[in-house]
Amino acid sequence: MRKFHSRGFAKILEMFIAVSLVFIFSLAIIPRSGTINERNLDLSFLNGLALDSEFRRAVLSGNSSFVNSSLVEAFNASGLNELDFTFSISEGPYSVPNLPQKEIRSYSLFISAEPDLPGPKILRVYVWKKERQ
Cys staple from 130: which of 54, 78, 84, 100, with CB 3.0 to 4.6 Å? Predict the structure, then answer.
């Protein structure tokens, strides 16, 4: 049976520990500044907006300024200030505004007709992380 050389074994063990620490550091500690963290991205508050009669009427009538201000208030109330967004209101399935070259998440709401307004319409909200200044 051959004996291990304690110095050589210690060097190999040291190398594996160093590689492991570098790997853990690169995965866990270095932040991903341009990505959206899934845990912080809960857009379910938009479902509540869809139940608001004034918001529904604004979407169906195409009142973009009211929709924008409602979305800004909802994002701020939900603590999602680090996100930027844009939206589109359309009747068809393929209306996409100019979007930045970033990781973008989208959320769609189907708003059906109010009795005195034409519809239905689709509100799409596109969300991305704001640039740090």
Answer: 84
